[in-house]
Every structure is written in C-alpha cells, then in structure tokens.
Amino acid sequence: MTTVTILADNEVKGSRPKGLRAEWGFSAAIDDLLFDAGQTGVAYDNADTLGVSPFETIVLSHGHYDHTKGLPPFLDDAEELYCHPATFESKYHDEEPIGMPYDRSWIEAQVSVTTHTDPVEVAPGIHALGEIPREYPDSRTGEHVQDGERIEDPVWDDQSLAIEVESGVSLVLGCCHAGLRNTIEYAEGVFDAPVQTVIGGTHFRSDDQSEIDPVVEWLDGRVERIAPTHCTGHVARRALEDAFDEAYLRVGAGSRIEL
Fold first, then answer.
1. Which of 113, 198, 238, 247 is the most buried (most CB within 10 A)?
2. CA nearest to 99, candidates 56, 142, 139
3. What is the layout of strands, in order, in the sheet containing 143-146?
4. Per-residue model confidence as pLDDT tens digits over 148-166
5. Taking the model in full, what pTM does it have?
6. Domains (ranges, CATH) in the chain?
7. Do 98 and 126 touch, CB atoms closer than 8 A?
8. Quick check: helix, strand or coil at residue 50?
C-alpha cells in the first residue's frame, strides 16, 4: 500500500501533530519520494514534524515558484530530481517573475537532474507522466519566453504522478495546468487502466458554474475518490463534494491518504 502525505497546502488539516503550517503552494510525500517542495520552508518543516523525510528522489510537477522555491533544504539528501525540461524556463505574471528562482546549473551542482517529456518510472510503481497531450481545455497561466518574446504560457512542463494500485492507477497532481480531463485520459491510456483516486491541485479555479459542471459530470462515476488541494476554487470544491459525497476527501497539510 502506498501512502500520500500532504506536506504543504493552503490549509492545515486537523490539529495534530502540533506545529504544522500552511502556505500558498503544494508538496507531498509519496512514501519516500518527494513531489514538489512548496513555496518557503513549510514543506521541509512539516515533513520533519510528520516524520516522513529525508527524500532521495524528488519530482517537480512544473516550474512555478509555489511548487519549487522551497526546494533547497531538500537537496542535501536528494540523489535524483526529475522534471520536464521547460521547468527551468523563465515565467511571468505581468511583470512579476513566477518561475522557479533557481537555474538549472545551480540545481545540477547538488543533485543529478533527469529531464523528460515521456512517462518515466521514478520509484517502483510510481511514474512521472511527463508532458500531457491536450484534447480538452487546459489552465494556461502567465507568460513564458519563446524566440525572445513573452507569450502566453501553456505550462507544457505540467506533469502529475501516476501510482500503480490494485486494478488501476491513482494520480497525485501538482497544479494540473494540463487540465483534469486531459491528465486522467492520458494516464488511463498510458497504463490501460482506470484512474481510481485523484489527489492534489486541480487549477479548477473558475467561479463560472457553466465551466465547472461539464468537468464534474465527466468525473462523476469515472473516478472513485477525489481529494482536491491548493489551486482548487471554492465553487469547484462545493460542486465536487456534492457529486462525490463520501468519496470526496477534505485534506490539507498533514493529511495522509492510503492508496
């Protein structure tokens, strides 16, 4: 059985153990693998409090600051880091940088870096999906630089983790800029198996019910459990909870989910 422990999220779930903190960002431990690092040192401190560190393998979901800026203290024990090559590119929201504040050479001086666009097994039964094909709408954010010009960023570096479980796979998402439906369909195609549980940031932030309802209807009956975090808006959370009922998991920093 695989355990997902949420290390950084917008809120803390529960009052124990004492000392857990929240922040805008995301990080999770999947057994002894680290997925994302949050924005500050919250994920590192929470991992210590929860007794789930250190980590030899790190996977980054994409190159935004709220998933990568908390990386440095984890590098002391890490041996391998996996990410999409575009994780290192400059990213902006208006004039504000929103990308990872560390360049590739600095990271590579401390840990072996493997960049990939195809799925890769990063630990036994755990796979980083790589670049997600996009048939359905995605969640583009900010701008990146292409041919010397800043243009809309599709966040091609967005990837999720797929964990092999009995009779299927489960997903842990960072921000899911690639879109929930695209990510789920791609995982099902790669593994020729259904997605059972979805945990993590969905970037499902719209307040427009006409945008939310088709996605929720598509998910309902297709996925067994859902545990949204981080970049999931209040309207989407309510719609998902109504649709999934007891299969909707309320989680936050400190939550442990068994797969």
1. 198
2. 142
3. 96-97, 91-93, 143-146, 149-152
4. 889 999 999 999 999 999 9
5. 0.96
6. 3-258 (3.60.15.10)
7. no
8. helix
